[in-house]
Amino acid sequence: MPVLTYLEAIRQGLWEEMERDERVFLLGEDIGVYGGAFKVTEGFLERFGEERVIDTPISEAAIVGAAIGAALVGLRPVAEMQFIDFISIAFDQLTNFAAKCRYRWGAGVPIVVRGPCGGGVHGGPFHSQNVEAYFFHTPGLKIVEPATPYDAKGLIKAAIRDEDPVLYFEHKYLYRRIRGEVPEGDYIVPIGKADIKRLGRDVTILTYGWMLHKSLEAAEIVAQEGIEVEVVDLRTLLPLDDETILSSVAKTGRAVIVHEDTRTGGIAGEIAMRINERIFEYLEAPVVRVTAPDTPIPFSPPLEEFFLPQVEEIVQAVRWVANY
Amino acid sequence: MEETLTREQLLDMYYYMKLTRMVEERLQRLYRQGKIVGGLYRSLGQEGESVASAYALEEGDFLAVMIRNLGALFVRGVRPWEVFTQYMGKGTSPTRGKDNIVHFGSVERGIIPPISHLGDLIPVMAGIALASKMQRKRSVALTYIGDGGTSTGAFHEGLNFAAVLKLPLIVIAEDNGYAYSTPKHKQMAIENIADRAIGYGIFGETVDGNDVIAVYHATRRAVERAREGLGPTLLEVKTFRMRGHAEHDDAWYVPRELLEYWQKRDPILRLETYLKEHGMADETDFEAITHRIEQEIEADLQYAEQSPMPDPRIALEGVYAETPSVSEVAPLPREHAVRTRS
């Protein structure tokens, strides 16, 4: 099976969807002639032409708004945010327009808004954010964030084929650092399904994105101490896969939730609450979380490293719940 | 050479204007009787521009209204019962009680419902225009924005986007004097909104919004340009909001002289005068139309009043294509887990 980088897997998924379905088109800043700031769409203009690979003005609200309009009348737009931080400018279009159309008047809005998220590359406060929590609170949206090349390709295809608006967050730290086997040709990773990336019986780690890889490292370390960690890659953040989350935690009785996003109002809080409401009596220890602190993302390398959750913190959290 | 509107077309527009006014007058009574849920936003004095601009569209075109464009909806085939049930929050309303006022429509009918956030429709309608261009269709997209709404970022982003991509989009900018209580001069430092068109490199035109014939022809020109691939138009219509922002607002801040000035320029009266002066219609014709509308309204209102309120359980439906919404059906490992609403 071919080995691709995370970025190549996204590109391949997009490419195949554009080959498969002529309703699929791309719009965004610098995605055509330049091939995108991270080169995800390199070569697309030459293959699909400027009608299906549209370089737009710097107008996130117009990019997403136009995607909504085109989707309403039957197309399948994929809008790129050059950095996912800029999605805030399109907040209104996503949370008030796209998310509420089906509920209000029965119209589906099959759009995908994708873009690079996350830190680790010294992007500073405006090129490193994780924005899922802003949208996690909006019924009508779906949110996915793959951590592996296999999932990246399968999820972009599922997102494009979904009948509702999907936010597809790609972690820029993983773009060229993570490689993996990716089948040639068509397959999808269903939205709403988490994936157990490592089986274990003692502690469950629930995580996604870059933090999946740090969590797997942490699991390796504690395994040498005899703690067997089950690592659940959420993959879809909205809607959460309650079945996989709750059955894993019911099995281990111990849960550590790890996310790169900041702490207060982060997704970990919601997951902990679901565990509390539904399987409280299965717990052997309090649910804990490892997250970034409640600050903006700092720029300078020592500051950023201090800000980002580290493997050692995950290890400590696992030990703590294991020994509770 | 511009087409001439026939007597039939003019009387058609007259019907829609009058229908708009009479439905709103009835809504006002219902409001006072406490039969309406929420506010009532009238378009008194602005019925002409809404009707005439929508009348310039054809089958297959797309229209998105704002709160004072009820007349445009009627032109596109909406019937009074839909409006009454929307205002009453009835289960038979087009949104089944999910949303109110003119917030309804469907892609099939070429009607895109607004959200309350001003300006956001412009990028969305630009997207519809983009799709039309990509699919080699002749259809154009038309939407409205008030003088206040032109101050938003979405207005700028949407118009600039449409201009750069040369999309078949028509934006009707309604200068009706006030945005809620804020007069136009506190909204912008220019006199004519259409002046902004030059900054976008698109067509701009200002017309008398209470002259339905002028609005019709100006919109028609914009539609033709759009179909020919010449890009968007910012068409400004000068009109006036003859009541408050909504019925709770008595508009004490609007000088009486302004209302008197515009009262004399009422779009319905003006069309009546025009038709009479040109020997195309007389009072008997107007009375016949009014009588017909009265009957239509009575029947539709009766249906609306007798309609049931929605079943509360539908509040949970329709968030996602998969129903019921996913979080409601999460399998629970325990029998006595916390009860979800059902």
Task: Describe, in plain words, how this protein is organized in 3D.
The complex is a heterodimer of chains A (324) and B (342). With 324 residues, chain A is of the alpha/beta class. Chain A has two domains: 179 residues, Rossmann fold; 128 residues, Rossmann fold, CATH 3.40.50.920. Chain A contains eleven helices and 14 strands. In chain A, the strands form three sheets. In chain A, strands 3-2-4-5-7-6-12 form a seven-stranded mixed sheet, sandwiched between helices. Chain A has a five-stranded mixed sheet with strand order 9-11-10-13-14, sandwiched between helices. In chain A, strands 1-8 form a two-stranded antiparallel sheet. Chain A is globular and about 60 Å long. Chain A starts with a strand and ends with a helix. In chain B, helix 6 links the parallel strand 3 and strand 4. Chain B has a single domain, classed as Thiamin diphosphate (ThDP)-binding fold, Pyr/PP domains (Rossmann fold, 3-Layer(aba) Sandwich). The C terminus of chain B is likely disordered. Helices cover 41% and strands 10% of the residues of chain B. Chain B is of the alpha/beta class and 342 residues long. In chain B, helix 4 crosses helix 11 and helix 5 runs parallel beside helix 6.
User: Rounded to an integer, what's the Rg of chain A over CA atoms?
Assistant: 19 Å
Structural class of chain B, by secondary structure, is: alpha/beta
Sketch the topology of chain B as an H/E string, one letter per element. HHEHHEHEHEEEHEHEHHH
CATH architecture of chain B: 3-Layer(aba) Sandwich
Rough outline of chain B = globular
CATH homologous superfamily descriptor of chain B: Thiamin diphosphate (ThDP)-binding fold, Pyr/PP domains
- Structural class, from secondary structure content of chain A? alpha/beta
* Quaternary structure type: heterodimer
What's the story with the biggest beta sheet of chain B? Answer: 6 strands, parallel
Tally of individual helices of chain B: 11
- At CATH level 2, the architecture of the largest domain in chain A is 3-Layer(aba) Sandwich
Could you tell me the CATH topology label of chain B: Rossmann fold
| Share of helix of chain A, binned | 25-40%
Q: Mean pLDDT of chain B, as a whole number?
A: 94
Number of strand segments of chain A: 14
